[in-house]
Amino acid sequence: MKRIALKIDVDTCRGTLVGVPALIDLLQRHAASATFFFALGPDCSGREAHKSSPSRHYDLTTRLSGLLLPAPDIGARAADSMRQTLAAGFEVAVHAWNRVLWERRVLSADNAWVEAEMAQAWRRFEAIFGAPPLAHGAAGWRMNRHALRLTQRLGLCYASDCRGKYPFFPVIDGEIVRCPQIPTTLPTIDELLLLGAASADQAVEQVIEASTTISGDHVFTLRAELEGITFCDAFERLLATWQEKGHRLVALRDLLAARNVAQLPRHTVAFAEIAGRTGPRMLQGRAFLEE
């Protein structure tokens, strides 16, 4: 029986207020678990409207946020929706403070900027949930060396900051980071649409095929703004099909629950473009010290 962990990125104010409650209802009806990664600060999604292809699936208000309209403070306006997620039994974690700015700057940002962004997200998360976060999922799978170091320094149980095949300890520039990574293993619906899928339903078929033909457990990343609103019907069909195949739909923490984390393999990380997205993303590389 395969386990498929559902990683839900919540990028915008509307996604938090509208997409998250819809996803909670959908997941509960299917007895599925998931991990919600929340953006906690300003919603500047409008600034990427002409640069980030998934934005064409967003509603008009979201596409103007932070551009022609003031950037709403997601954590201030949507804290109740976030707490509802935890109260419903789902795992909650940090996505970013300012998601758009993180994706744009982190690859070349200095240490002070990275620390300030993560500190703001940590403080807001703790103010909303009453406890510090135990996991981090980088916006756009974009990180740098210092951000990786901070996942260890902040005492996280795990992070999900990259694309790859299975859980591992990351190694960057020869430095082992003692915070395991649980990478996204499957393509996303919006990526497949950009690569030529004629519809969300066709993209779902491709996700199902990938999850079937590639062995092992999987992590599927979805967005509250897309699968929770625009692609809701297609996502429900994906859930139903996985369950018909006998797969367990779990939170990311469940992939580590029965493992000896200390024995996870060590892999270098690389930065490269992936199909369906522009710009470098963090990837699971070769086994460390592999000949």
Structure, explained:
The protein is α/β, with parallel strands linked by helices and 291 residues long. The chain has a single domain, classed as Glycoside hydrolase/deacetylase (TIM Barrel), CATH 3.20.20.370. The chain contains twelve helices and eleven strands. The protein has helices at 13-29, 60-64, 74-77, 79-87, 99-105, 111-129, 145-153, 189-194, 200-213, 226-230, 232-244, 254-257, and strands at 3-10, 35-39, 91-96, 135-136, 158-159, 169-172, 175-176, 218-223, 248-250, 266-272, 281-287. The strands form three sheets. Strands 1, 2, 3, 8 and 9 form a five-stranded parallel β-sheet that branches. Strand 6 and strand 7 form a beta hairpin. Helix 1 (13-29) packs parallel to helix 4 and helix 9 (200-213) packs parallel to helix 11. The longest helix has 19 residues, at 111-129. It is globular. It starts with a strand and ends with a strand. The mean pLDDT is 93.
Given as residue ranges, the uncertain stretches (5+ residues, pLDDT < 50) are: none
**Radius of gyration (Å):** 18 Å
Identify the overall geometry: globular
- Strand tally, please? 11
The CATH superfamily turns out to be Glycoside hydrolase/deacetylase
Tally of helical segments: 12
Oligomer class: single chain
CATH topology: TIM Barrel
The class by helix and strand makeup works out as alpha/beta
The total tally of domains equals: 1
Determine the N-to-C terminus distance: 33 Å
Look at the structure and give the CATH class: Alpha Beta
CATH architecture: Alpha-Beta Barrel
Helical percent range? 25-40%
> Strand count, sense and closure of the main sheet?
5 strands, parallel
Please trace the helix and strand order, writing H or E for each element.
EHEHHHEHHEHEEEHHEHHEHEE
What portion of residues belong to β-strands?
Answer: 15-25%
